[in-house]
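User: Please predict structures.

Assistant: First:
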Amino acid sequence: MFKRYLFLTARDFITYALLLMSVFHVASPQQATISVYGYVRSAESGELLPGSIIRVNELSKGTVANKDGLYRIILPCGTYNIYISCIGYYTDTIKIISDTVHEIRRDIFLMPSSIIVPEIVVYADRQNPANEIMKYVIEHKKEILGKLRSYKFKAYTKTLLKMDEKGEGDTAIVGILETQTRSYWKYPDHYKEEIVARRQSANFTPEQNIFTVGRIPNLNEDVVTLSSFSIRTPTNQNAFRYYEFEMVDTLSMDDCNVFRIRLKPKSKTIPLFDGFISISDKSYLVMSVDIKCNEAVDLSPIKDVRIYQQFSLFESKYWLSIESVTTFYVDLAIPSVPPIFCEQHALLYDYSINTAIDEEVFDRQIIQILPLADSKDSSY
């Protein structure tokens, strides 16, 4: 759970602060069988498209283009269809055929997609279109989410710890932790993670590496919990009491219109979110978020928590998270120890929806470390 993640971070960083000063060496990954990489750009303007989603359906694997529009995905030898999608553009497909060990560069150029404004948005009587969309989201989400009884997925999580030792605004990476997990969720609130493999920089022990994807805050729920705070979401049944909504843009992805909406908290004393959400006109559920907490959420010594998520459509009705980026910094208020910046990037894939999950999976231990987790090499 995100609650559990924040508690552990605050407690364990006191120990980590001194360890982070040490110099470490990270082992180089072994050469992959096929490394497919390249840049994702707009075919019309040539601009880079960070955040583009890259998927290999044959393997249920995927990745996301970084802030420079660069992607890289490692595959075993074989033949694959790789799908590339981005909000505002038509999805494209490339075919990869290889039976030898080497790198393949394939730059992708996506065509902008057209926008068709659906009937649900009412403009004639000057109503706020963002309010109309959010009303529809709130009214219909229970009908859709009520059909989601369980799911399981795999995740790769990489956590970077950074520090500005000289106080000059130039941060350096002082820790890297990676985990590969299997996660299980079952209605109403059962959750379990299994660490299948993990590795970390030399200044951490395996026992300290429990930085998993955690319970991702879901803005399709009425309330989400961060530490001891219950935060009302913009899809809460009483959302209009707490938020102002403003339409920022209407985009599209293939045949799906995407409404980008600015949400502003009305109160500084009630725990709320501040930022942007994107809504799909296919299911009227949240398909991406870029948010932070308002002043009422005090997680000291953790500060400036920001959450970015992307969701993808499964079975034509469920928007489930495929990418989650959480950033924050920890200020221990120790003069000799500068703030520690944390960036956690998680990729989620290989979903199995509404399949039977044994109740015995959900024991008291939220995180279980499998016996061979520390023996897996980098190729895994």
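Second:
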Amino acid sequence: MFDSVSSYLQTNIVPAAQEQGIEPVHAADTSVIVPAFNEEEALPSVLSELVSTLDVNYEIIVVDDGSEDRTSAIACEYPVRLIRHEQNQGKGAAMKTGIAAARGRKIIFIDADATYPVDQIPAIAEPLDRYDLVRGIRIEGRDNIPALNRLGNNLFVWLIGTMHQGDSLDALTGLYGLRSEVLRRMRLNSNGFDIESEIVIKAGAMRLRSKCIPIEYNERLGEKKLSPVKDGISILLRILTLATMYNPLATYIFPGLLLWSLAVILLATTVSTSIPIFETNTFIVGIMAFLTGFQLVILGLIVNLYATETKLGVQSQNLTRIAQKIPRIGGAFLSVLLIVAGTIWGILLGLEYVAVHFKYFEDTEQLLVALALIVWGFQLLCTMFFLSLFAGVLNPHE
């Protein structure tokens, strides 16, 4: 993403300070990114505070996300770097553009609506020498957050804390900083207000060292941009989507084990009943539950493998053990036995059917088991083959 943005930046970045005869700082240690969309009312206050508070170790980058007011013109009045989007793309898109242009080894984000205390930026930047992520937690002034937004924030904080690892306290704060190499490694995808939830979720998955500092949240200047319903749904979907990637235990493995348990119960029921119809139906449901449960467990392991390979998650020790050479060979050998056994069993049942001249077939349950053995064997064989492709990632010394 950052490479594709580079050509865009070369033609769309405006050194606003230089236009005013002021030479911008090039050796900044910290980049402060201010995404802005139609913020002509609040931006002067934010930029004035930034300029008066920060020293030469900071650079200020304003990303005008397709504003239709004087946002860009106002930014040009201050010693900042201005990047313009021709069309509105969303807060997350503006932040990613700012990340691609940032020169500092530390990157701090602050909203352009004057709700966050600019004077706390140095307090966020200093700990980034020891931490990967430092967030400003809104302790005072929460009454300035609209009631519906507060309700949504509480729900999202609970969901993130329940479904994801890491610190979810005030997960949607708009004032926080990360080290640039960590931020780029996150490979952010969000283009809207769900960017904060993506960052805090990936920070937990990556086991980043984080620190929180208390801040005061002020009343916003200008018209609010966040839609409680539309953007709330986007944030919710982002949280749930990322759970399928970074919490495979809850989204795949536990449901798979639950289906396995259901399969055992249903298949055991067929042994204790003599009702033919109920027996056959139970067999079908039980076998489908068993195969689906196995597939879910395997999918959970594969998802964890992806997170490990992309360095966006912590490697599962169980996956490491399974991916070692001896377990892989054992799994492949077992899969071949299952396929051969199921195939021979099915052939024998077919021969019996031929022997009675296709008049009747009374071994439906046995045929289901034989077919299940074949499918299970192929599932297991494909899994072992897939793990062997990534064996070097999971076991570097193999």
